């Protein structure tokens, strides 16, 4: 049996999305910027995909700009804002548990003269609203806070950011990395008050290599690429029409009702591992059920992952972008090194089943018995 519990890294592409990508590459392969009929047909497909993404976010299609993925979208939000507002101020407020595409961008911006505040989470992995209130001021030009943490599933106070910005009379823009929330819980850009919002296709059963950034009408950021009229000059260059069209299909297949089935699977595994010796849950009780992070203390993550893989089970120790490095998220939560070193992240999708959960639990138990603790 093969069990894939690494959906926060990437998901299986749906048949409909894959078929659409193939159709675009072999039949509707014209350049969307070309003025002949094949180009116009390709442009129509892009427009349909843009409408799908816009509808899912409660946005106008003119506020959606396609990118190569969420990493580029996050970079564009941070660097584009810093450059456009450098006369207003240079302070950026973010968290110590953001995705590396935000953390590393902020470090680069620090080297370029920006002041960056990295808010630390509590033991539950969540940023405290009071810390946001204390950090956001009249010098703040941008607040970048993710909706759901990619390692623990902890839901952040993203719904409160815009209110705090207004209360503190701050000129800050609000950027929200919604990669792990998108397609799992309803996210409406206007409702949460986001000026910019990042999403990607490969977390919702679409292809890798395509994402989008929502930029609220009237929000000015400086493009980071030049050389074309595409995507309103926000992200110029020939669009990856096959990937974008497939992204649109994946969006149309979003199933918010799946969260109930996923919760049953998460709760089953959580209840099982909590009964095991020296196992500690790192995800908060109210985490998004699509992610469960726990530590099998005494057994290194890599060792357990290899054992599980030999049983046909695929999980991770944290963010795939970290490529095996220790989790900066768990460290920021103040967890002891023994728990950080032994952490496993299970991440589910609408395709996950209870049968897979049961198989995983038995394999984990066997692994704990066979692997010598250190």
Description:
It is globular, with a radius of gyration of 21 Å. It has helices at 15-26, 37-56, 70-84, 100-111, 129-135, 161-167, 189-192, 241-252, 258-274, 301-310, 328-332, 337-341, 354-370; strands spanning 3-4, 64-67, 91-95, 115-119, 140-144, 173-177, 196-200, 211-215, 279-281, 291-296, 313-314, 343-347. It has a seven-stranded mixed β-sheet with strand order 2-8-7-6-5-3-4, sandwiched between helices. It has a three-stranded antiparallel β-sheet with strand order 9-10-12. It has a two-stranded parallel ribbon with strand order 1-11. The chain contains 13 helices and twelve strands. The chain is α/β, with parallel strands linked by helices.
Strand order of the largest sheet: 2-8-7-6-5-3-4
Describe the sheet with the most strands. Answer: 7 strands, mixed
Alpha-carbon distance between the two ends: 29 Å
Low-confidence stretches: none
Radius of gyration: 21 Å
How many strand units?
Answer: 12
Residues in helix, %? 25-40%
H/E element string?
EHHEHEHEHEHEHEEHHEEHEHHEH
Average the pLDDT over all residues and give the rounded result: 95
- How many helical stretches? 13
Classify the beta-strand content into a percent band: 5-15%
Instruction: Characterize the overall form.
Output: globular
Question: Structural class, please?
Answer: alpha/beta
